[in-house]
Amino acid sequence: MTPPAQPRERLRVAIQKSGRLGDPARELLASCGLTWRESRDRLFCYGESLPVDLLLVRDDDIPGLIADGVCDLGIVGRNVLVEHGLAREAQGRGVELTEWRQLGWGTCRLDIAIDEEQEWTGPEQLAGLRIATSYPHTLGRWLAEQGVQAEPIVLNGSVEIAPRLGQADVVCDLVSTGGTLRANQLTPVTTILHSEAVIAGPGRTLDDGRQEIADLLLRRLDGAVQLKESRLLMLRTARSGLDTVLGLLPEGHEPTVMAVEGRDEVALQMLVHGPVSWARLEDLKRCGAHNLMVLPVEGMLA
Ligand code: PRT
Ligand code: ZN
């Protein structure tokens, strides 16, 4: 049973109960300092440190819960959000849901895959074929854009075996490593949607003071994401070689350069966004830098 939509001073976030996105979603929210008390049925988590409660559901239910106002935000794959939006639009019940943040994990593609023995000549090759998919609306939109008429066969699981069972000619399914397609003698030929986990929310601000809580949460979340990707790069170099080294630094904050007592050397440190490659460190070393170190950042307050 869904709770009634009534004025709320607490933010309610829907996440996947189990499955690929459930654990990373919880970890992400926990990294924002959120702690919860779980209900006995493990479907609801009451936020203790902030007024942010979690509803643990099937991923397919997340867009509907937000559209109906039962939840304010949700962490869900773009593939699910897009399909739900198009399905609602087709029913004339369009509710604008948008991506409030892209999270960069849970990445996959919605691909058309054909028999690995066949040659791919282009979308027109799909004309008149049966395409097995769990994403009929996303597929339908793409086919319309290509000006191709084909027959979507809607299956809720095991899409990849449909051609072997004679249920379909080709498939349109989610792919990450491609192992599942290969095991079924299928090969991906074109991508119709690039997906990742996103924070989904309504296309308007929230009511009853919940926007303020959402803003606080998103600020912490942005900080947590930035922190996770940040590294501290430290090195030393001869003062005369400093300009060359400065020209080789990766993208990041302005470097701090410090004199080294009793030596004609400087020590340099800088905050870098993202990983620092071995190739970059080797380049720096080749140009005179030494004592190179890349450290993770555990906390930051500008
Ligand atoms: O129970 P519930 O309905 O909540 O979960 P679910 O079974 O519908 O979803 P789940 O947990 O499998 O996936 C949740 C979300 O993870 C998806 O909606 C995508 O946004 C994202 N995601 C990322 C994926 C994959 N990668 C993925 N590889 N979802 C499904 N797959 C499938 C793929 O279709 C294939 O069958 O996993 C299989 C392995 O893929 P390969 O290419 O690595 O072999
Ligand atoms: Zn699902």
Ordered list of secondary-structure elements with their pairings:
Elements: E1 11-16, H1 22-30, E2 36-38, E3 44-47, E4 52-57, H2 62-67, E5 73-77, H3 78-90, E6 97-102, E7 108-115, E8 130-133, H4 136-146, E9 151-154, H5 162-165, E10 170-175, H6 179-183, E11 186-195, E12 197-202, H7 210-229, E13 230-238, H8 242-248, E14 256-259, E15 265-273, H9 278-286, E16 290-296
Parallel strand pairs: 1-4, 1-5, 8-9, 8-10
Antiparallel strand pairs: 2-3, 3-4, 5-12, 6-12, 7-10, 7-11, 13-15, 13-16, 14-15
Helix pairs in contact: 3-4
The structure holds phosphoribosyl ATP and zinc ion.
Write a concise synopsis of the structure shown.
By secondary structure, the chain is α+β, with helices and mostly antiparallel strands.
Strand content: 25-35%
Roughly how much helix do the residues carry, as a percent range?
25-40%
**Average pLDDT metric:** 94
Q: So how many helices?
A: 9
Would you identify the regions where 5 or more consecutive residues have pLDDT less than 50? none
**Main CATH class of the largest domain:** Alpha Beta
In terms of quaternary structure, the protein is single chain
